[in-house]
Write a structure and sequence with these properties.
The protein has 223 residues and is an alpha/beta fold. The protein has 9 helices and 11 strands.
Length: 223
């Protein structure tokens, strides 16, 4: 899930539509709502965020520090106009990158991956055991062969692998895949997606790599 902050609701809704075409869920905030949310959100919710996009809004130079107090997800500022002074101010405030409109969402995803790669938390492809995942919309590979999955199952697999070594509960997975404020879908849909994913992985690998424990959640074992 990507969080978008902008004072214009048309902008946040536009990002939501663009990222949805790439299979990425977004949650949009106005600046005032975001400031309150980032300070009070539960850890499991903010840990589901893969990146923050900070658009045009007052006092946005304050947001990177507030984000860093809660998580280490990439922070990218989006400028409507080119301004060296503004760009330098944003980098000084702690953003990881600054981009100028217009840009394709795939470029934003590539920049997010580049930031993760710099910090050792991502690459053009992440190989764990027999599975290689990508974070740019491509299907994963199993033993070097493309492994086609529906969008939601692919995103769950990517999220499990990105958080390998941690046990993720149903709420965390739901928030990462559907967004924090999606009230039209029940959390129980996660169980259905994971059940289908496990079956496909079992058929491909010969074993079930997803370990589940009641009340504790899911983790993936591929090493």
């Amino acid at each position: 899930m990507i969080v978008v902050v902008d004072e214009r609701s048309l902008v946040t809704s536009g990002y939501s539509a663009w990222f949805a075409r790439e299979g990425i869920t977004t949650t949009g905030f106005s600046p005032n709502d975001f400031g309150e949310w980032v300070a009070t959100v539960q850890e499991q919710d903010i840990m589901a965020v893969e990146a923050f996009l900070i658009g045009e809004c007052a006092n946005r130079s304050q947001f990177p520090h507030k984000i860093r107090e809660r998580c280490s997800a990439p922070v990218i500022a989006v400028n409507d106009t080119q301004s060296l002074e503004n760009t330098l101010e944003l980098f000084q405030a702690g953003v990881d990158d600054v981009v100028r409109k217009p840009m394709h969402v795939r470029e934003i995803l590539a920049r997010i991956n580049a930031i993760r790669r710099r910090y050792g938390n991502g690459s053009s492809g992440t190989q764990i055991g027999p599975i290689k995942i990508f974070s740019d919309g491509r299907d994963p590979q199993v033993n070097g062969v493309d492994f086609s999955l529906p969008r939601r199952e692919r995103r769950i697999l990517e999220y499990l692998i990105a958080n390998r070594g941690r046990r993720l509960n149903k709420a965390q997975i739901f928030n990462a895949i559907y967004g924090i404020f999606d009230s039209e879908v029940e959390e129980s849909v996660v169980e259905s997606h994971i059940s289908k994913l496990r079956k496909k992985l079992r058929e491909q690998l010969g074993y079930d790599p997803i370990d589940s424990k009641r009340f504790l959640g899911y983790c993936i074992n591929l090493d």
